[in-house]
């Protein structure tokens, strides 16, 4: 068995594969980010001051040593060996077995002073005080929380208006001084000693003025006192390229589009029934010739554009949410369009298998207008590059117009949020949090170095004020922008308590008080378990297992891998799965193994898919393909339980997302090379159906129903418009054959990609593209109109859902599902298959009316023989039968 697959994060310099913990970490997390600017390497900080009374430090005390904290101007705080309390061990599990020291109670009032300058833990020889045995820096987040968090948690930070007068507040407890640089003049700020918050109240004429904070603070990353001019972490608006914050009131009527206050959203859909389209704002319209605002928020107000018409069709078929890739202010795109570089080649004139397109795109990638945006700069301001004018609060108004436009199309809005890391740290130019409270907001490892397991400078939501920032930011997006849901990037790097605090804060929002119903806002995220926090090392994580039963969903990789086959890091990308021909239509790759091995893998994949169709329920009981009665939690997924959910809605199903190859591209690698475009389209719909027809929520990448391709690019985070743009008009193709994908992440696969890109059979035309979309929409209609797909409890699923032909005699490549009065046959084989369910003999069934009168002519040839209970379904087809037909 393969070892658990790693989540790979890519910076511009391409990080190595991470070996991650017990659970297999799915490829949706492979999101790439831009590399953070380098900063000076900080001195080691191996001691941790966890509260005003306690320091944890690996230095062992003996009769020959003395220990102390040394701070500015020769000050010292003697340390006495002690033991951690049970409460301290629970709060800091990764420190539980380490030596601890106590401060003298008489010295504890000196902590605030000591924390505002250089600080070291020093071990000296007892008989020679000048003989230093060991000296190291000190990590301070714990003591800062102990000293200030109780008061600071209730502070309103950033610009807050009381009538016409703004108050600006920033938490900077270790700063020696903080002043406000307001439109070129300096304004003094006052420090509250109890909370560590600096604030100043201004005049009405401060409204919309640019400002930054001037913070004098000790910076361990450079080992000196610095004066940083830095934007506000709680900014509500920014100038272009995030140069300065603006004193902007989000309640200002000038920022509200017409009808904003009375905007009627589509009826809220419970998370267990959510059908979600994931899209990137620029991808959506940049190549849409019918859009008046290509690449902008306002493209979602172009009701007659091809893109909006397509979203409208999806909404009418049952899609309920549009999930926007990061739309907060991020750090890797020039915000003024005049500053954005463009490839200088005639890309369309180059051969389909050429390497010149990717070379040309790479030359401008760092300065073009495209990036996925997983590199946060300011968490609570809309990204400026999507605005008509990035220089000022217009981006606020246009973001709201986008939300309104989606609502008018029948869709609610989800934001992809990335609170787990920042684009930079230390004294980096784009570092915000760490230049205000150095060493607090970013998670540090045991030696004081920066945690970067997420690819970038990690944040520490386990610290009170970073956790508060997460909650405050989410509430602002919900109240001020009417966002209907949030998808947390790398949610497993958050404490479960932090995500539950978000849920609690949202639940408190009411239409009467806040203009939104917070209880209807959905939450889901990537619950992967890896890195320095893995296996609850530092706190109880918001991982797949831990979030079960909370009403907050996590992405489920189980069925996805079974459907597609293999993984994104396979040396040979042709490893097959259920929808891509494993055993039933082998592609000849030696990676496939023998026919017996393929058959065994396929049957196990079918068990994984059944668990997925149940909503990944841990306790769902069924007969597996070995003939054993098992629970979902007893089905193996790379050494972890396949089933982990407590109720429908805990697990989110998907066959593809922005990470890794699109579904079409994955199937392009895996299906036999001679597979026709028509059969590829059918395999695509079948793969999508395993998520679409599952219990619980499901997500698909925008354009996947149109067979969207990125020309085999598995990591298109910085691959520009050429590889990423969605083509809504089938006459423009689906994106396949736009050249070899960028070398940085794909070159090892070029020998497999090159012959595919020129293979006419792989390139679909309008019949395949429009046919696949129409067939998918038919399945959406069935999913959202048949109540059997919307079981509210695990008990309901157990009662309604069964797999009557599951067992040792199950047909490889075919899953037969019975759900209430429905029978669904997933035939992934290339040939027609008959499935006889003896218990249904004599019962009337007919093809579901939606499919019987739908767009797919092939599914209409499905048959049912009442006398024997036999369902006959064409190859690569999902047929839904309704009782009583």
TrEMBL record:
Protein name: Alpha-1,6-glucosidases, pullulanase-type
Family: Belongs to the glycosyl hydrolase 13 family.
InterPro entries: GH (IPR017853), Glyco_hydro_13_N (IPR004193), Glyco_hydro_b (IPR013780), Ig-like_fold (IPR013783), Ig_E-set (IPR014756), Pullul_strch (IPR011839), Pullul_strch_C (IPR024561), Pullulanase_N2 (IPR040671)
GO biological process, one term: carbohydrate metabolic process
Residue span, Glycoside hydrolase family 13 N-terminal domain: 157-235
Organism field: Streptomyces melanosporofaciens
Pfam families (UniProt xref): CBM_48, Pullul_strch_C, Pullulanase_N2
Top-level taxonomic group: Bacteria
Span of the signal peptide: 1-34
Entry keywords, A to Z: Signal
GO MF, one example: pullulanase activity
Start and end residues of each Alpha-1,6-glucosidases pullulanase-type C-terminal domain: 732-882
Domain Pullulanase N2: start-end pairs: 45-146
């Amino acid at each position: 068995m393969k070892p658990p697959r790693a989540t790979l994060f890519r910076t511009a310099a391409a990080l190595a594969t991470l070996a991650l913990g017990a659970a297999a970490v799915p490829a949706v997390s492979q999101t790439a980010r831009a590399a953070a600017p380098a900063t000076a390497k900080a001195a080691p900080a191996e001691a941790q001051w966890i509260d005003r009374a306690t320091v944890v430090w690996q230095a062992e005390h003996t009769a020959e040593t003395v220990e102390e904290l040394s701070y500015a101007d020769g000050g010292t705080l003697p340390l006495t060996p002690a033991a951690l309390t049970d409460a301290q061990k629970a709060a800091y599990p990764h420190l539980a077995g380490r030596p601890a020291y106590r401060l003298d109670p008489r010295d504890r009032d000196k902590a605030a002073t000591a924390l505002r300058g250089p600080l070291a833990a020093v071990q000296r020889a007892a008989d020679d005080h000048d003989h230093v045995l060991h000296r190291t820096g000190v990590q301070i987040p714990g003591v800062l929380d102990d000293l200030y968090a109780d008061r600071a948690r209730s502070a309103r930070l950033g610009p807050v208006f009381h009538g016409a007068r703004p108050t600006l507040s920033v938490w900077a407890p270790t700063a020696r001084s903080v002043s406000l640089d307001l439109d070129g003049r300096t304004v003094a700020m006052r420090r509250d000693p109890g909370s560590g918050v600096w604030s100043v109240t201004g005049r009405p004429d401060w409204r919309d003025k640019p400002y930054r904070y001037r913070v004098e603070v000790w910076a361990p990353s450079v080992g000196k006192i610095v004066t940083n001019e830095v934007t506000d972490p709680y900014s509500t608006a920014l100038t272009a390229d995030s140069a300065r914050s603006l004193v902007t009131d989000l309640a200002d009527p000038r920022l509200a589009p017409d009808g904003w206050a009375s905007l009627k959203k589509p009826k809220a859909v419970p998370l267990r029934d959510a059908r979600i389209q994931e899209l990137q704002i620029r991808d959506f319209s940049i190549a849409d010739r019918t859009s008046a605002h290509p690449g902008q928020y306002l493209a979602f107000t172009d009701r007659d554009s091809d893109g909006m018409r397509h979203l409208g069709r999806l909404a009418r078929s049952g899609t309920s949410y549009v999930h926007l890739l990061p739309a907060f202010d991020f750090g890797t795109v020039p915000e003024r369009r005049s500053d954005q570089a463009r490839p200088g080649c005639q890309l369309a004139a180059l051969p389909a298998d050429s390497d010149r397109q990717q070379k040309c795109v790479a030359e401008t990638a760092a300065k073009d207008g495209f990036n996925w945006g997983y590199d946060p700069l300011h968490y609570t301001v809309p990204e400026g590059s999507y605005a008509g004018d990035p220089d000022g609060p217009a981006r606020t108004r246009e973001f709201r117009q986008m939300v309104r436009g989606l609502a008018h199309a029948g869709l609610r809005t989800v934001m992809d949020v990335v609170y787990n890391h920042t684009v930079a740290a230390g004294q980096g130019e784009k570092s915000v949090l760490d230049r205000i409270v150095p060493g607090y907001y970013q998670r540090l490892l045991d030696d004081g170095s920066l945690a970067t397991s997420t690819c970038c400078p990690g944040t520490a939501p386990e610290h009170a004020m970073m956790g508060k920032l997460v909650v405050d930011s989410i509430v602002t997006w919900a109240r001020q922008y009417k966002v209907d849901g949030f998808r947390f990037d790398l949610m497993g790097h958050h404490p479960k308590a932090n995500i539950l605090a978000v849920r609690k804060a949202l639940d408190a929002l009411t239409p009467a008080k806040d203009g939104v119903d917070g209880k209807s806002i959905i939450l889901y995220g990537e619950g992967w378990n890896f890195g320095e926090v893995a296996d609850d090392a530092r706190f109880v994580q918001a991982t797949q297992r831990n979030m079960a039963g909370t009403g907050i969903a996590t992405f489920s990789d189980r069925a996805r891998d079974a459907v597609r086959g293999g993984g994104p890091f396979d040396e040979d990308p042709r490893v097959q799965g259920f929808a891509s021909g494993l055993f039933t239509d082998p592609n000849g790759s030696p990676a496939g193994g023998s026919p017996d091995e393929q058959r065994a893998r396929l049957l196990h994949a079918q068990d994984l898919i059944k668990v997925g169709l149940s909503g990944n329920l841990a306790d769902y009981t069924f007969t597996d393909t070995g003939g054993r009665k098992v629970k979902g939690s007893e089905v193996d997924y790379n050494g972890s339980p396949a089933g982990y959910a407590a109720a429908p809605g805990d697990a989110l199903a998907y066959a593809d997302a922005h990470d890794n190859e699109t579904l079409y591209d994955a199937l392009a690698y895996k299906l036999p090379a001679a597979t026709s475009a028509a059969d590829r389209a059918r395999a695509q719909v079948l793969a999508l159906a395993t998520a679409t027809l599952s219990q619980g929520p499901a997500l698909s990448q925008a354009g996947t129903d149109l067979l969207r391709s990125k020309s085999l690019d598995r990591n298109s985070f910085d691959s520009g418009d050429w590889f990423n743009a969605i083509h809504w008009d089938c006459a423009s193709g689906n994106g396949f054959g736009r050249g070899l994908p960028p070398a940085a992440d794909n070159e090892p696969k070029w020998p497999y990609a090159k012959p595919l890109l020129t293979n006419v059979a792989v390139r679909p035309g309008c019949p395949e593209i429009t046919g696949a979309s129409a067939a998918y929409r038919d399945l959406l209609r069935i999913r959202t109109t048949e109540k059997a797909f919307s079981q509210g409890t695990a008990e309901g699923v157990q009662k309604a859902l069964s797999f009557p032909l599951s067992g040792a005699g199950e047909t490889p490549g075919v899953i037969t599902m019975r759900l209430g009065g429905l029978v669904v046959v997933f035939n992934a084989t290339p040939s027609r298959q008959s499935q006889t369910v003896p218990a249904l003999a004599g019962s009337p069934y007919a093809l579901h009316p939606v499919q019987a009168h739908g767009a797919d002519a092939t599914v209409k040839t499905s048959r049912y023989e009442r006398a024997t209970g036999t369902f006959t379904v064409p190859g690569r087809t999902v047929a839904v039968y309704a009782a009583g037909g």
